[in-house]
Specification:
Length: 146
């Protein structure tokens, strides 16, 4: 973690962007930063996301530092923005809602040859049905095996 902080110090970016508060690390004093906070679930329901009092303490310290160092906080919905303002005490003027939509290259392909080649490369049998899950397996995600 300190190596990352030193790397930011050496490179001196105009603005540092952290795509998630989970991956945030301390920045050099005065470094302009933008931090993404996806929700306030860990604060609303710590028993579902943080297994121990110690984990909860370190989470509060980390999030607090991230939010103090950030000039702007990005989030994914108006609801999340309201939660962040209410639960984390961030002024609404510092919060911006932005899309999490994937880039165009992640759209389904219609190219049957490309699909077959990729399936063969990764070991998926021809014609097999599959899906991709992007997310966590924490209880609050309500993921259930099919």
């Amino acid at each position: 973690m300190l190596r990352l902080t030193r790397a930011v110090w050496r490179s001196a970016p105009d603005v540092f962007f952290s795509p998630s508060v989970y991956t945030y690390f301390p920045l050099p004093p005065g470094q302009r930063a933008v931090v993404t906070v996806h929700d306030a679930i860990a604060e609303r329901f710590p028993e579902l996301t943080l297994p121990s009092p110690r984990a909860r303490l370190f989470w509060r310290l980390k999030v607090g530092l991230a939010l103090r160092q950030a000039r702007l906080v990005l989030t994914v919905s108006d609801f999340a923005a309201g939660e962040i303002a209410e639960v984390l005490g961030i002024q609404k003027g510092r919060i911006r809602v932005t899309s999490e939509a994937p880039a165009a290259e992640y759209a389904p392909s219609e190219d049957k040859k490309a699909i077959a080649a990729l399936a063969a490369r990764v070991g998926v049998p021809a014609g097999a049905r599959w899906f991709t899950y992007v997310g966590g397996f924490n209880p609050h995600n309500t993921w259930m095996p099919s």
